[in-house]
UniProtKB/TrEMBL annotation:
Residues 1-22 form the signal peptide. It comes from the Bacteria. This is DUF6591 domain-containing protein. Pfam families: DUF6591. Keywords: Signal.
Length: 291
């Protein structure tokens, strides 16, 4: 029973997020002088995407693939999908029946779910250069993290909003494409592409040789970041760089992960994400006696 409540709670959260996602890119851009320049730089027609069934790790999933035919390096690509007009009550009934069995939801839970539009999304943080293609990007129910495995469920939705983040010099720009209005809009704010520590911890660890680094924690106690656009071989080379800096004490090493201390008591933890071709890194300062 607790597991059912937990599953439904997660569903309630992700469903509430869906409205936020749908609202991000619907701004009017027809009278925006820059909208033509946006389309010339990022045209949705130049991102040839497809969703179909595929096998990953011996299991069947519904997966997104795409080819970047733009002139820009894409750092994030997301599509949200909303319920199609005209789907039958029988199709909806079959969908909700499958969902109820899959997640062991109660009838009360399902009543709440049925009051909302069916939606899905797919998103990847893979760094994709012009002319490159990627595949095996998972699709998810609603705005959450439950894998979509039934192509019949995907056939109930249609694309709503595409979010494209692209790299230009040292910044990341965000463009939205609204499939309903067929219009583009942009975020005014940009992101710094390479976010490095402003504390002494940044000098205690190698700087990854990549274009995109996103910092999540940066204080005197710890520096945590994700670096994007690495192969597993490049990750292993980065581990070797850390070893050369003395991170070899109390080491724990297995494929795609490395943890160790150095003689000063600094600790590094490295983890490789094969799906996004990224690595997560945390460096922690030695604890003081008061801690």
């Amino acid at each position: 029973m607790k597991e059912k409540v937990k599953i439904f709670t997660i569903f309630a959260i992700i469903l509430s997020m869906t409205g936020c996602l749908a609202g991000c890119g619907s701004g009017e851009t027809a009278n925006n002088p820059g909208s033509r320049a946006i389309k010339e730089k990022i045209n949705i027609k130049d991102i040839a995407w497809n969703v179909d069934e595929g096998i990953v790790g011996g299991e069947r999933y519904v997966l997104l693939s795409y080819t970047n035919d733009t002139q820009c390096t894409i750092t994030n690509f997301e599509i949200t999908f909303n319920e199609k007009d005209g789907i039958t009550e029988e199709e909806k009934s079959d969908f909700y029946s499958d969902i109820q069995k899959k997640f062991e939801l109660s009838d009360e839970d399902m009543d709440d779910l049925k009051s909302r539009s069916i939606s899905m999304h797919a998103e990847t943080d893979r760094v994709v250069k012009p002319g490159e293609s990627i595949s095996n990007v998972n699709c998810y129910y609603y705005g959450g993290s439950f894998y979509l495995k039934d192509i019949n469920h995907y056939n109930l939705v249609e694309p709503d909003i595409a979010t494209i983040k692209y790299l230009e010099e040292d910044k990341i720009f965000t463009v939205y494409y609204d499939y309903g209005s067929k219009k583009y809009s942009t975020e005014e704010k940009t992101e710094i592409a390479y976010q490095w520590s402003q504390t002494d911890l940044g000098s205690k660890i190698p700087k990854p040789d990549v274009k995109v680094v996103k910092s999540s924690i940066d204080d005197k106690a710890s520096f945590m970041f994700d670096a994007y656009g690495l192969t597993l071989e490049q990750f292993n080379a980065y581990v070797d760089e850390c070893k050369e800096l003395g991170y070899t004490d109390e080491s724990n090493n297995y494929e795609g992960s490395y943890t160790a201390d150095n003689a000063e008591g600094y600790n590094v933890h490295l983890y490789y994400d094969e799906r996004d071709h990224s690595m997560s890194v945390t460096i922690s300062a030695p604890k003081t006696e008061s801690e």
